[in-house]
DNA sequence: TAAAGCATGTAACATGTTACATGATTGC
DNA sequence: GCAATCATGTAACATGTTACATGCTTTA
């Protein structure tokens, strides 16, 4: 995963390993954390794979290495971005991918979001079913917190579904916040 | 983390490693995945630490090992459950802990939820601030999906906050679902 | 001039997954 | 009798974190 995020970051702008970390933190820090201990070794591997090239900065006062994505690296990233992963992708991973969807054509983006939405819907049904089984339980009060986590899952999935509905149609994002407060 | 979840599971009921996995999957599978490759080695370690004991099933037709939590194991689990982690706990980890809050006294449970809520509020402010910076950006349309992930974070945090508000006061959980649909 | 930030990198550790190996029991 | 499920366990692999080592540059 991180290798693609690195490629996606370099796709937008060449930069140093240090800057890559800052970009990731600023952009998708909410969903994904990357440390130097994972970035630097990966950059080395991407160099070996010729997905990126690297040059010492002309401004040689600093010992910085500027990384640039290659054509091969771009193709690799594009392929990942367009791939419709059937996997049981966690929402955080999916969001880290969505972050780069501005580089994807709208149709494919919508399709991937719809796919994710469908899986989320199926999962929500499961949870609602689980909730019903609990609903008439005599000992309900003894499981208040256990149940609360189930409700958390339900509310979270409902949130995901409304997000999908808005974003797959490229609806104005402010609708999210306006309806609140 | 998993060691505590195993202890918490055995606290409620003695069982085999196989059953522990099923329990985890059924209870907090939504937040936490555990494979045999992680459970069995951990059970061995918990045995060494005398947090659990183990006996071959009397019904010896099957080669099953029934694990039982010890007093020392219970104390260890209690301590973890009551500990007010200041850490930057991810919501999933927190929920896995909340799952066991029925074993904790109400005051401490509410206090931990309030603590989590506070940290979530601070984070939400950050995100709302970030959003404002984007709001009047001329190139906003070029970052639709990038922005959408920011909004996802905002909506998610708002969801977390309302969950906290309900659960820390032990309010009827159905309010979550009733207001919807 | 001291602290904060820029900048790279490694080694030890932690954690967990996947695939494999093995074999009994239960339900159809 | 066959498939599904119960049941345990290991070894190789994947992934990533933390702490450490090093030293320059910018800013208060």
The amount of helix of chain A comes to 55-70%
Mean pLDDT of chain A: 90
This entry's quaternary arrangement is homodimer
> Most extensive chain contact?
A-B, 39 and 39 residues
Low-confidence stretches of chain A: none
What does this structure look like?
Two copies of one chain form a homodimer. The first copy, chain A, has 181 residues and is mainly α. In chain A, 64% of the residues lie in helices and 6% in strands. The first copy, chain A, is built from eight helices and two strands. In chain A, strands 1-2 form a two-stranded antiparallel ribbon. In chain A, α1 packs across α4, α2 crosses α3 and α6 runs antiparallel to α7. Chain A starts with a helix and ends with a helix. The model of chain A has no long low-confidence stretch (mean pLDDT 90). At the A-B interface, α6 and α7 of A face α6 and α7 of B. The structure holds a DNA duplex (28 and 28 nucleotides).
Short description:
Helices cover 64% and strands 6% of the residues of chain A. Chain A is mainly alpha-helical and 181 residues long.
Please name the defining characteristics of this protein.
homodimer, 181 residues, mainly alpha, two-stranded antiparallel ribbon, 8 helices, 2 strands, 64% helix, DNA-binding
Topology diagram in text:
2 copies of one chain form a homodimer.
Chain A: H1 2-12, H2 17-28, H3 36-48, E1 52-56, E2 65-69, H4 71-82, H5 91-98, H6 106-135, H7 144-168, H8 175-178
Antiparallel strand pairs in A: 1-2
Chain A binds a DNA duplex (28 and 28 nucleotides) through residues 1-2, 16-19, 33-38, 40-41, 44, 61-65.
């Amino acid at each position: 995963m991180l290798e693609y995020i690195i490629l996606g970051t370099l796709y937008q702008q060449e930069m140093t390993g240090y800057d890559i970390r800052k970009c990731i933190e600023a952009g998708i820090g909410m969903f994904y954390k990357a440390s130097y201990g994972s970035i630097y070794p990966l950059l080395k591997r991407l160099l070996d794979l010729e997905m990126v090239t690297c040059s010492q900065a002309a401004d040689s006062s600093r010992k910085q290495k500027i990384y640039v994505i290659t054509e091969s690296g771009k193709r690799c990233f594009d392929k990942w971005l367009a791939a419709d992963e059937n996997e049981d992708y966690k929402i955080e991973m999916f969001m880290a991918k969505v972050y780069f969807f501005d580089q994807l054509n709208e149709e494919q983006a919508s399709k991937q979001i719809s796919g994710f939405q469908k899986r989320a819907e199926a999962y929500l049904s499961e949870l609602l079913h689980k909730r019903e089984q609990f609903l008439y339980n005599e000992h309900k009060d003894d499981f208040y917190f256990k149940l609360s986590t189930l409700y958390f899952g339900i509310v979270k999935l409902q949130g995901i579904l409304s997000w999908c509905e808005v974003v797959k149609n490229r609806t104005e994002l402010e609708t999210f916040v306006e309806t609140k407060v």
